[in-house]
Amino acid sequence: MNILDIIAKKRDKKELSKEEIDYFISKYISGEITDYQAAALVMAIYINGMNYEETKNLTLAMAHSGKTLDLSDISKTIIDKHSSGGVGDKVTLILMPIVASFGIPVAKMSGRGLGITGGTIDKLESIPGYKTDLSLDEFKKNIKEIGISLIGQTENLAPADKKIYALRDTISCTESIPLIASSIMSKKIAAGANKLVLEVTCGSGAFMKTKEDAETLSKVMSKIGELAGIETVCVITNMEQPIGKNIGNALEVEEALKALQGEMEEDVKEIVLCLGAQIIKLAGISTDIEKNKEMILENLKNGKAYRKFIELIEKQHGNVEYLNHIEKAKQIIPVKADKSGYVEKLRAETIGRAALGLGAGRVKKEDKIDYTCGIVLEKKIWDKVSVGDTLAYVHSNKEENIEEAIEKVKEAYGIAEKEPERYVDILNII
Ligand code: URA
Q: Is residue 68 part of a domain?
């Protein structure tokens, strides 16, 4: 078997066998297949797709490319959650401490930013000292001791995904059902949880642009979850506009902190309550979704969820004191409306590109993130605006990036005379 034949087969729209997929993963991990050969195969998969059988085999090969964790000695229910990526998506930072505040064990391995979407690990690393690369023993110890741990991909868990994920990010191969399904599910299988809630984002700021594609992705992931013994629920969320107000790593940590202290944007709240209620149901605490939402609101009000977040940061060596004065970018510039009316569009993709241009994400694999830069949205879809109102603020540390970011933010907004129709944030639950 050799990689050239495998690339050619996928290039020519043929189905890859389990042996060929296993060969690709093991030889890429060992370094015998180069990045440019892997890039060619990933691009062929992106263009020609994979059927369920191939996607399942790719997922399992990636999941078993390193260690797999067994967490069954901690509890019979271990929860994990993952998002297929979005702009301003700080849901994990808010939701997981909420879940842990109910005594439900949370074991989560998150990703870094991908394309225009942010990643939880980059957000957490904006907190000085926070360690995302705990050893697997420490990861388990933290779940046992405080009921939650949030780490990045270690070299040991699903290393194939770590390599392919970083590669996809730099060759424009992010929006692909088999690549996303295998990336997410391989991590989840390796990390050892047995109940999983997936936030499958859909819209201009997501990898899945249509509800149909989001449903297909959800079904593939649920089927793979079932096969691996993971009870999986997918919640399809609307990503036409960014989630919440802040986009950018430290800015999103700041918004998450406020949310945990009771000041939560309505769209964020809807998603957090929906996912949280499903998790409480999966954990076997209560099947009454409305009651579960009330219980979540109670744990936000009584401070339990906030205290759990602080405990998590402390336990993973983050500087808790810093959370009282999160660093800001050097320049904060308002972007003003030049038209009156209602915000009809707030294109998440364009806002994501603006944030990327400011340094909130990576263009090249080795790029360093600028944690404090980003965008704060003052007006969102359905808000009324008058000429001269501030639509958003651009936070930047580099003079040369500002003009382009302002232009992009302006381009992201569509202002109409009439109030636009309302849409829902939760599109489907699978
Ligand atoms: N999140 C992941 O972990 N992988 C993807 O491919 C997309 C979102």
A: no
User: Which DSSP category does 60 fall into?
Assistant: H
Mutation pick for ligand 1 pocket among 83, 184, 185 (CB with most ligand atoms within 8 Å): 184
DSSP secondary structure string, 299-322? HHHTSHHHHHHHHHHHHTT--GGG
Please pick, among 122, 161, 169, 425, the residue that the annotation labels catalytic: 161
Question: Per the domain annotation, does 65 fall within a domain?
Answer: no
The CATH number for 252's domain is: 3.40.1030.10
In a domain, 54, yes or no: no
- Tell me, in angstroms, the distance from the centre of ligand 1 to residue 160's CA: 13
- 3-class secondary structure, 17: coil
Residue 78 has φ and ψ, to the nearest 5°, of -125, 125
Q: Both tokens of residue 283?
A: 């954990």
- Residue 170 pLDDT: 87
Give 226's contacts (C-beta < 8 A, 6+ positions apart). Answer: 232
Contacts of 383 (CB under 8 A, 6+ apart): 342, 343
Q: Is 1 exposed, middle or buried (0-12, 13-18, 19+ CB in 10 A)?
A: exposed
Q: What percent of the chain has pLDDT over 70?
A: 100
Whether 153 is in the pocket of ligand 1, judged by its Cβ within 6 Å, is no
pLDDT band at residue 369 under the 50/70/90 scheme: very high
Question: CA 112, CA 360: separation in Å to the nearest integer?
Answer: 11
Closest C-alpha among 292, 176, 174 to residue 233: 292
Residue 316 and residue 219 share a domain: yes
22 pLDDT band (50/70/90 cuts)? very high
For the stretch 213-255, pLDDT in tens is 999 999 999 999 999 999 999 999 999 999 999 999 999 999 9
List pLDDT tens digits, range 303-313.
999 999 999 99
What tens digit of pLDDT does each residue of 326-350 get? 999 999 999 999 999 999 999 999 9
